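Honest question from a wet-lab person: if I give you the sequences of every part of a complex, can you actually get the arrangement of the whole thing, not just the pieces? Trying it with mine:
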Amino acid sequence: TQLLEQSPQFLSIQEGENLTVYCNSSSVFSSLQWYRQEPGEGPVLLVTVVTGGEVKKLKRLTFQFGDARKDSSLHITAAQPGDTGLYLCAGGSNYKLTFGKGTLLTVNP
Amino acid sequence: DTAVSQTPKYLVTQMGNDKSIKCEQNLGHDTMYWYKQDSKKFLKIMFSYNNKELIINETVPNRFSPKSPDKAHLNLHINSLELGDSAVYFCASSLGTRSGNTIYFGEGSWLTVV
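Yes, you can. This is the full assembly:
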């Protein structure tokens, strides 16, 4: 069974701070996705990374896929209250997506 | 138009009852899923269908029976509901079965078994 460990599980910061969320596994994935879920809604895709070492930027969000395709990180610069939500990483292989347990981020104004 | 829509959004029912959750997607996708999210927010795949054919069945009790009448619909029927079935159930779809495809989720169906 492939497992994805996310850390930290909970994160509460002030507006303007930077943060990094980690997603680690002992398994190799063909792709790694990050989703954000807001209360009462379904997860929404933020990014997909497929190449080891790949870095993608989405405005203030920077995503990195580890060289060995076993881990990933999400860095948010100058966090805003609108960034509040549950961040889920998901590793893809064998036609299946395995989700981590998520990082619940709260950005306080 | 909502891309993936599921009904009902909220469902409160007694133990032992049978209930169904319906799901429809208007994205023209070939692949549909049911995911379960527990109280700790852990999202786990239950079933995956591709072109109406079951391709993933993740050790789900056989009280749960998915049905796909066509590519745009994947309904979930649950027999003899138990307290532990309380969770949020998400329907989702994607263009195909490749693991890098974007998965589009519905808004979830909040099931409470009392």
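Two things worth pointing out. The mean pLDDT of chain B is 93. The interface with chain A takes residues 4, 40-45, 48, 55-56, 90, 92, 97-100, 102-108 of chain B (CB under 8 Å).
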